[in-house]
Amino acid sequence: MRRIIFSPVTWLFGFIIWAAYLFSLSTNPGSVTEGAPQIPHIDKILHFGYFMGGGGLLATAILLWKGTSCHPSIRIVFPLALLLTIAAFDEWQQSLSPGRSGNDPIDWTADALGALTGILIANRFHALFRRLSSPATEISQN
Asked: For residues 55 and 79, is the Cβ–Cβ distance under 8 A?
């Protein structure tokens, strides 16, 4: 089980599921916030949180594959650029979906900030994650 959890393929697969679900949400007619609590700007909070999850999944996959010794452009800039592209495509796709509005720069900004937060959290806690996955930890827990 530990091998699955600490495999970059698992986290990459999670990211792919995350992206597929994002695009299914974007093409869904009507608002995703229907039935949500009436909090001002709840859609921006949801954008931030969803992209924070995507950033964390992608960054963790990269960190498990390449490690923290790889260049920050691979650990931080690449996942951020990919997520910003996905966010822009998502906003464009929403503008084509009936009952949805898209191309909102504030939504894209919330996506960008969420993605960056997820990436930075993954990078910050990767050392702890690696320590938990090391063989020495497995022996001491048995």
From this structure: yes
In a domain, 60, yes or no: yes
pLDDT tens digit string along 78-104? 999 999 999 999 999 888 877 777 888
Number of Cβ within a 10 Å radius of residue 75: 21
Q: Which residues contact 123 (CB under 8 A, 6 or more apart)?
A: 59, 63, 68, 75, 76
Q: Into how many domains does the chain fold?
A: 1
In a domain, 5, yes or no: no
Separation CA 86–CA 72 (nearest Å): 20
Q: Which amino acid is residue 24, in one-letter code? A: S
Burial of 8 (0-12, 13-18, 19+ CB in 10 A): middle
pTM (2 decimals)? 0.85
Question: Residue 121: what are its φ and ψ, rounded to 5°?
Answer: -65, -45
| Pairwise CA distance, residues 36 & 52, whole Å | 19
The answer to whether residues 18 and 54 touch, using CB atoms and an 8 Å cutoff, is yes
pLDDT in tens, 95-132: 887 777 788 899 999 999 999 999 999 999 987 777 77
Task: Determine, yes or no, domain membership for 3.
Answer: no
